[in-house]
Amino acid sequence: MMSSRITASRRGRISSAGGNDDSQSHSPERGHPSKLVELVGWGLADSLPNALEVAVRHLWEKELMARAEAGYAALQADPEAWQEELAERAVWDRGAGRWPGG
């Protein structure tokens, strides 16, 4: 069974090119980029390469936030480190009022 190759036209429409259009070959388990095609269909990207970029950016942002939240939770879990953080924030808050417009 030949799998379909998905291409994006210049106008962002998705079309099947070549091979059989067998639904078995489109399953995510077989590596078909169905979620990327959905991003294009939803108008979040105009082509498969752009959809991949959107997906990678989303995953990167999700991982960044997860790591930041884990670091913040670790800081709060350490009472001494958390008190140091609060003391430093207080210094910054007092200093911020000294700047014009602050």
Entry keywords:
55% helix; 3 helices; 102 residues; elongated; disordered N terminus; single chain; 8% strand; mainly alpha
Rounded to the nearest angstrom, the radius of gyration is 24 Å
Across the major sheet, the strand order is 1-2
The unreliable regions are: 1-29
The number of distinct helices, counting runs of at least 4 residues, comes to 3
Helix-strand category: mainly alpha
Number of domains: 1
How much helical structure, as a percent, in the residues? 40-55%
Strand content range: 5-15%
Rounded mean pLDDT score: 74
Anisotropy-based shape:
elongated
Sketch the major β-sheet: 2 strands, antiparallel
Count of distinct strands? 2
Write down the secondary-structure element order. EEHHH
The separation of the N and C termini measures: 67 Å
Helix-strand layout with pairing:
Elements: E1 5-8, E2 14-17, H1 34-41, H2 48-77, H3 79-96
Helix pairs in contact: 1-2
Overall description:
- The chain is mostly helical and 102 residues long.
- The chain has one domain.
- Helices cover 55% and strands 8% of the residues.
- It has 3 helices and 2 strands.
- The protein has a two-stranded antiparallel sheet.
- Helix 1 packs across helix 2.
- The longest helix has 30 residues, at 48-77.
- The radius of gyration is 24 Å and the shape is elongated.
- The termini are far apart.
